[in-house]
Design goal:
- With 396 residues, the protein is an alpha/beta fold.
- It has two domains: 19-203 and 381-394, Glycogen Phosphorylase B (Rossmann fold, 3-Layer(aba) Sandwich); 206-378, 3-Layer(aba) Sandwich (Rossmann fold), CATH 3.40.50.2000.
- Helix content is 37%, strand content 19%.
- The strands form four sheets. It has an eight-stranded mixed beta sheet with strand order 3-4-2-1-7-8-9-10, sandwiched between helices. Strands 13-12-11-14-16-18 form a six-stranded parallel beta sheet, sandwiched between helices.
- Helix 9 (261-270) links the parallel strand 12 (252-255) and strand 13 (277-280).
């Protein structure tokens, strides 16, 4: 961790551990996604090297400060809904940004923040300047103007303004930690080749995955992720309906929750496939997720935008055949291309349906040699290895 504490800030006088403030509006297990799981896995592994404090919304009941896994959690705002009308709430972003001013009264040596939802980065840049401390931001993905236009559902000034905010936010940190090499590359396209960017990827718990046994209830297809529009879970349902029309009674398990769940359930009923589609919003532990993954024949991810693809990596580690698409903003495709049982196809419905049908005609399910020599690259994504890399970045 950092070797040069800022004078007059928060270094623990007993252990001389630097005090690190991590600002993120979501935490695991109350919100489930790649960035939440990243912090949940990495921060306790770094707790012996730093006094770690996470500043977030009050997701839990009880006092605003609690300690877990060697990490202290502080609620700096009440809980605001993350989504409104299926999109991230601008109101929530604004309230959380204002609440981040409370860090002016805190003592710390290093200030780290999550990229999303951008607005808080402007406030935290002010905090870091006033406190004379290093400001580091973990960047998960770069959207760009075209995607902002698609996301906002409009052209013109709104998409331009959102992209301008994103570009400006990139220039605020003293250091950026990119969650994938592709995100680092896109950041450098905007900031230049000499920008202070280092890549520390998301990871997986290889020991826990290897120890998991398949769930007793099998499924043909499995999908994992937040149920939001760009994940394209609706297309998975369309694929299942087409396969049924072709006489292939395919079952599908969808693990996750989000603002699109009700619409997806209605779509399954409208397509006449509801009895063959299971929505699982009750998966509470990673070991349960791994068991469900291993009980499936094929993992499918049709997301058009992935900064990394942690669920994809987990499926790979479980040894499942994995299908994803070549959508330009889907960085998970790079993981799948490196995988011995991975398939990347064009993102159209006809192509995806044909690919799924072909893969289901194969052996399916976890390979007996999961984690074998052909995919030894997975070891670099084990959480302890990732934690060591992140500790090295902080020690610079």
């Amino acid at each position: 961790m950092p070797g040069r504490p800022v004078p007059g800030t928060g270094t623990d006088p007993v252990s001389q551990r630097p005090v690190v403030a991590v600002v993120c509006d979501v935490i695991y297990p109350y919100s489930r996604g790649g960035r939440e799981l990243r912090n949940q896995e990495l921060l306790p592994r770094l707790a012996g090297r730093a006094d770690l404090h996470v500043f977030t919304m009050q997701w839990w009941d009880g006092p605003p400060v609690r300690r877990e896994g060697g990490v202290t959690y502080h609620a700096i705002s009440r809980l605001h809904p993350l989504y409104r009308h299926g999109r991230r709430s601008a109101r929530q972003a604004a309230w959380f940004a204002l609440a981040s001013l409370r860090l002016l009264g805190r003592r710390f040596d290093v200030l780290e923040a999550d990229q999303i939802p951008y607005v808080q980065l402007f406030v935290l840049r002010l905090v870091a300047t006033v406190k004379r401390t290093t400001f580091t931001v973990t960047w998960h993905e770069v959207w760009g103007r075209s995607y902002w236009r698609e996301y906002l559902g409009r052209a013109g000034w709104a998409a331009w303004a959102a992209w301008a905010v994103e570009r400006l936010a990139m220039r605020l940190p003293d250091m950026i930690i990119a969650a994938s090499p592709q995100t680092a590359e896109r950041l450098r396209e905007v900031l230049g080749a000499s920008a202070p960017i280092t890549t520390v990827p998301n990871g997986i718990d290889l020991a826990a995955i290897h120890a998991a046994y398949p769930d007793a209830d099998p499924a043909d297809l499995v999908v994992v992720g937040r149920l939001i529009e760009h994940k394209r879970v609706g297309m998975v349902l369309d694929v299942v309906a087409r396969l049924h029309a072709q006489g292939l009674r395919t079952t599908c398990r969808i693990i996750g929750d989000g603002p699109e769940r009700a619409a997806l359930e209605q779509q399954a009923h409208a397509l006449g496939i509801a009895p063959w589609v299971e929505f699982r919003i009750d998966v509470g532990e990673q070991k349960e997720l791994y068991a469900l993954l291993k009980s499936a024949r094929l993992f499918v991810s049709l997301s058009v935008r992935e900064g990394f693809g942690m669920a994809v990596l987990e499926a790979i580690a479980c040894g499942l055949p994995v299908l994803t698409t070549s959508a330009p903003d889907n960085h998970a495709q790079h993981l799948v291309r490196d995988y011995s049982r991975g398939t990347v196809c064009e993102p159209g419905l006809d192509t995806v349906t044909a690919a799924v049908r072909g893969l289901l005609a194969g052996p399916g399910g976890p390979a007996p040699d999961t984690g074998g020599p052909a995919d030894s690259w997975l070891a670099s994504y084990d959480w302890p290895a990732v934690a060591e890399k992140l500790a090295g970045v902080y020690a610079q």
